[in-house]
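Folding Query — how this chain folds
Tokens — whole-number codes for backbone shape
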Amino acid sequence: DDGLIWRSRDEGAHWDNVTPPQLTAWSKVGIIEASHFDADTAYAAIDRHRLDDRKPYIWRTHDGGRTWQSIVAGIRDGDFVNAVREDPKRRGLLYAATELGIYASFDDGAHWQSLQMNLPRTSVRDIDVHGDDLVIATHGRGFWILDDLAPLRQMDADLSRGTTRLFAPSVAIHVRSAGFTGTPLPKDEPTSVNPPFGARIDYMLATSASQPVQLTILDASGQVVRHYSSADAAPKHDVASAGTAPEWFVTPSVLVTSPGLHRFIWPLRYPALPALADGDAYADGVWAPPGDYTVELMADGKTYRQPLKVAPDPRVDLPAEAYARQFAFARMVEAAQAGLASAQAEAGQLHGALLAAAKKPDPAFADAYGKLDAKVVGIAGIVDAPNPNNAWAMPPKSTKSFAFLNGALGKLASSADVADAAPSPDARTGYAAAMPMLERALSEWQRLKSEDVAALNASLRASGKPALNTGPEQQAPAP
């Protein structure tokens, strides 16, 4: 608090006064930041607001304190400095905590620019760079975290805004989100949003993209894992049909085409198979296992590539081959689910058509409609609930029905999805038991379409009536 700076080269046995000569008496030396890269480099944050001087003061030395330079260009007058910190991974990248916000410098303090973004104008008292995140403490108002500093660490002080680029992403951790943690808290409860789980992919566009921006994730062998396009319509919560409250709906990350810096989150999953996606381009499928991937960005006809490493959850001790077996098992179950979902969609469509036809007075076909619908309902295990969103709670009446198999395959999929582990003996046994049952159910459905539906359609056409539509042909998946 007396405005002096001292240095010891022998662990405190002797001290030398290395105070900058420009530093006046009773200036508060708030924080001295020793460089991570050079033993003779340090940065000092000076606070003089108690002397009615609110100007920013940061001093830098590269020679152990023999000489100092003032480095505050770009910090607003009145934002006196509480702390200055150096990024431990990128030399020359500094952060300054001021009384009214936070600043960053990409050139060792020669120039500063605001890093405020959505942070309120508040007193930032200290800064810590924790791994890849920037953590700040505000005066009595809590902690704020800027997640993933990868793009800042790759920027230059004179980075042209006319540059389009894809930044090298930080290592992504293969970790699952908390999932269901209880009913959402009332709006008056103090809550904060957790950072999104997945790989953070940052890119910068020089101008508004004239064509859709596309992002592709490739595995180590060059095979496409996931493809996104800014032209893909993101799902929206529809109050009339969602069946859940808006609090439960999570808007997926989408590609932005406007100029500037953007962040996209890949949730570390393959896309859901079309039969399971229900037209949603952002529907997630099975987990992508830990490993090496490539991110490919296409903007205005140019392609940019960066490597991406997905690391396993450090709390989980699992060999790579176990992750591979888990992934293979999940894909097999997903394929079976997709085959079943297609058949279920056909059954639902046919059931609806038969119900609609039965409502029309047509004595010649009324009995045929009823008998065929009974078979459809039996094979599919359809339950007509007043609220379709509640039908899942009604147990299937037959272990041979689509409804039962849907639940069985769902449990197998969950066993491969909820934790990092190779498929258990029970899961493998359950899959082996379910596949013949699925094949029989799908074969029975194919016979119903090729025989019962075909016969009824022939009669309908002969009477000049439109045939029933069951959708595309569905083949049983291979075990």
Observations:
- Residues 473-479 have pLDDT under 50 and may be disordered.
- The CA atoms of residues 396 and 404 lie 6 Å apart.
